């Protein structure tokens, strides 16, 4: 019967014994063991010419005593040759000292001759097979480990990263070969921290030493370091992890050390390239800013005086000349603005806003503004807003205005017969999200098919004849495309030469729900109301401007609104005037001789005392970059207006800062003079029920707090204590809000928005008007409560 522990193949056995009796006894025992085997026999060791052949056997039985050579010496010889086959020594007696000597020499086991039988041989073989299996597994594991270590070393070499370990108890380091490679040190020399520190660049040794001492205390160890090996400067990244023992004290640290020279050199190269690009962009920006200033300054006078001249009595011929001058000036201004817009977009300085606006109002405003140009050419301009288009959306109304104005203006320019149509549709891929589709269709000259691919590039027009006949720079569509893509939108063209063009713009936006509509931005007012201009009558304005023509223009425009105007030609003159007279607003040019606008404003804000130091200053800048505007605000200017400016734009700026006269709240009206307001008291009736005592207490409370609120509002408004006004309005909303009076809620919302501004002072006129409205409404409520609820005397 086969032994269940036997291997699948025949067992290859070798016996080296000169005693035939012993060999017959071994053979009988092997037959009884249940193993299937193949036995090779030798009578002495000298007969074995090639010892390496012994590796082919599964087990060797070796007699302790052999002729010519002892079994012990042959055993040692076998092991010295690296033969790992299990060897069982056969001895005549079970002497313990002999057994120990055999085991030390490399025997796997031993068996006493008179104990050889089937059972003992079976047990010996089982033990040998297990031992052989264990030895094979160990050898395989060792081989796998060597392969793994070789792969790790290769990977570390490829990645230029090595591993290290510091034993705190022994104060010793283990470092992988790659660290020696990086540091260019002898791998036969045991690593120490001092050796490493010696390779660190002298400028960084103190930093590295401090970081290591901190790491030993448990602080993070993660740093870039410059090293100075024999081959030259390198950069490395070192990091390590603190590993404590059971008491929390440092047991060891483990980490990595990586050569990052290539990365550092690339970063430095990228830094130099970026600095070069930024410097180039800066030079370009400075050039464009100076060009803008030098052109806009005379343009301000040209356009300003043509507007003033147009308002004087003129013959028809004179009007046509002035129209030509103004038209040419406006065209030149469009070219300047196009160049600056494209430059800002390309430099990444164009920012988008997210505000709520009414798209139908915006479209109506654009069409209303451009329709006169279309009518002058005898063509039509129409707009169609389809039903799916939401009324209120969240996006950038200024950029959308710029996109549509540019496309429609192009359509009007290149259309001689027929008309231009703006059509708007909408799709909703997600809830509260929509894609607006704008189609600007004209019946004009069209665009040849071979120009479709390049028409959106800078300075490209359909043909050279187009430039000669219609003018322009070819920048408009490039700007439109950039603005569309800035908003994650798309623009496309469909056109046939001679048969008109259709530009289609798709823009993603957010549909505004009903509850968010209170945050809607009102359309920008383009001209002040007549009654508002009365606020400027008698206002003391100082104009700081070095250009005589622009001085004259500013004086004429401001005097037309009833302002008292003084002129200063530079910052030094302005400071002298400010010390002698209190102005309500200063209009400050930027580029001036002796002292420019920035330095003058800085002096006013930091060297003078209130109230002089707090005078509102509006920059009059011929620069058009956002960085210049930011600089104006940074030095303390309150606002800015670009040259050339229109009179209405200047008036609107002034109205933000010129306070109404008088600036105090109107006296509180008596009850019999209060305007009529429809007030619903049902909520109070429901709250009080039939509880007469509670009703009387409610009436008394309204009678008590209403006059108190009124007096506080009057006092805080007079002293311009905006924080206190906001607090009182919050209390009013809490006390009167139960009545759900729409007019009062609206007034409180509007004043709350104004008072959240950093400086509500410039909006004082609106604040005063809203305070008066709130006083009137809560007084009317108090009167209604008194008349409508009181039941007892």
Give your account of this protein's structure:
The chain is α/β, with parallel strands linked by helices. It is built from 24 helices and 22 strands. The strands form 4 sheets. Strands 11, 12, 13, 14, 15, 16 and 17 form a 7-stranded mixed sheet that branches. Strands 2-1-3-4-5 form a 5-stranded parallel sheet, sandwiched between helices. It has a 5-stranded antiparallel sheet with strand order 7-6-10-9-8, with helices on both faces. Strand 4 (87-91), helix 3 (96-105) and strand 5 (109-112) form a beta-alpha-beta unit. Helix 8 runs antiparallel to helix 9, helix 9 (316-346) crosses helix 13 and helix 21 packs antiparallel against helix 22 (722-736). The radius of gyration is 48 Å and the shape is elongated. Mean pLDDT is 81; it is low at 462-473, 519-526 and 662-675.
Task: Reconstruct the topology from this structure.
Blueprint: E1 11-16, H1 20-33, E2 37-42, E3 59-63, H2 71-80, E4 87-91, H3 96-105, E5 109-112, H4 118-159, E6 161-167, E7 172-175, H5 177-183, H6 193-199, H7 205-216, E8 221-227, E9 234-244, E10 250-259, H8 261-310, H9 316-346, E11 355-358, H10 359-376, E12 380-385, E13 392-395, H11 397-413, E14 419-430, E15 433-442, H12 464-470, H13 476-486, E16 490-495, E17 501-511, H14 530-533, E18 540-544, H15 548-560, E19 564-568, H16 571-580, E20 585-589, H17 597-607, E21 617-621, H18 626-634, E22 639-642, H19 647-655, H20 682-688, H21 692-718, H22 722-736, H23 742-755, H24 764-789
Helix pairs in contact: 1-4, 8-9, 8-15, 9-13, 10-11, 11-13, 16-17, 21-22, 21-24, 22-23, 23-24
